[in-house]
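Module 6 notes. Inverse folding takes a fixed backbone as the condition and produces residue identities as the prediction. Think of it as a translation problem where the source language is geometry and the target language is the twenty amino acids. Below is one complete input and output pair. Work through it position by position during the lab.
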């Protein structure tokens, strides 16, 4: 298919970028996805959007925003830090009256939950420089199940592989445990660097997260303490890496061999260790 695709009667994204002078800024982690066939594929992979509010972070010139609205999203709330992108987004809002709300701000600092009506899906081509902290924040919600029904997010391939990694692999680590403890996570598809302007140096992957209704009972902060200690010295045996948390005694209570290393533990075993930690 052609590079632009037709999903609405708005101008092609290359024209939008040219008319608004939107050169992507490296300092904002911007890489614009201009192929509307691909943005539509991301929107479809989020599941049905009808009767859902959608939260989008970093819409840029609005390629994914347009795809979400064309796919029938009840309402899209877009948080954009770059004021240069706002006029382009306002043109989309005019095309879809009452269905797009744009906020200028930093998604890491904004409190946007109160502006959304359940059920909510988060769908975003996340700016690379804030992708992991945003994800960690959403996975660390105090109340669970969280405010969102699902998340469909684009990351650098390397981050996506860490999210879905299984025990016994080099990429398995703290992010894998936190993500899979609370969600079912699957890589949906990859997107080549050539699809972006400017092309990043790495492949991107779209990951879909479905929150588990009942994750293993565990205090998140304790789980984070255990995984931070274990993976902080991942080459060491657990009896050494977990020494500050009780070491051999803690492992004995959990029935875990102290000569094992962090990347061999299942999420259930990490939860067991966290639950045995003293407050």
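Target side of the pair, the amino acids:
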């Amino acid at each position: 298919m052609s590079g632009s695709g037709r999903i609405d009667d708005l101008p092609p994204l290359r024209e939008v970028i040219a008319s608004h002078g939107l050169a992507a800024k490296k300092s904002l982690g911007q890489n614009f996805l201009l192929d509307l066939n691909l943005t539509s594929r991301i929107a479809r992979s989020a599941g049905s959007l009808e009767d859902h509010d959608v939260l989008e972070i970093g819409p840029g010139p609005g390629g994914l925003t347009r795809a979400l609205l064309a796919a029938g999203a009840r309402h899209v709330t877009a948080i954009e830090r770059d004021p240069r992108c706002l006029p382009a987004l306002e043109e989309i809002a005019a095309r879809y009256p009452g269905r797009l709300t744009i906020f200028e701000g930093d998604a890491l600092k904004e409190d946007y939950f109160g502006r959304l009506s359940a059920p909510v899906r988060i769908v975003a081509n996340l700016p690379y420089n804030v992708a992991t902290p945003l994800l960690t924040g959403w996975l660390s919600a105090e109340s669970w199940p969280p405010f969102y029904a699902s998340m469909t997010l684009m990351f650098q391939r390397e981050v996506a592989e860490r999210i879905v990694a299984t025990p016994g692999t080099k990429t398995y680590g703290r992010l894998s445990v936190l993500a899979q403890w609370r969600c079912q996570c699957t890589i949906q598809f990859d997107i080549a660097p050539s699809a972006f302007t400017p092309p990043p140096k790495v492949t991107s992957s779209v990951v879909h997260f479905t929150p588990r209704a009942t994750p293993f009972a565990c205090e998140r902060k304790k789980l984070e303490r255990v995984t931070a200690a274990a993976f902080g010295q991942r080459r060491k045996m657990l009896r050494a890496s977990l020494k500050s948390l009780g070491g051999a005694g803690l492992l004995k209570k959990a029935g875990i061999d102290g000569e094992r290393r962090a990347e061999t533990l299942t999420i259930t075993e990490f939860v067991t260790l966290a639950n045995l930690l003293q407050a």
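Reference fact for the lab report: The radius of gyration is 21 Å.
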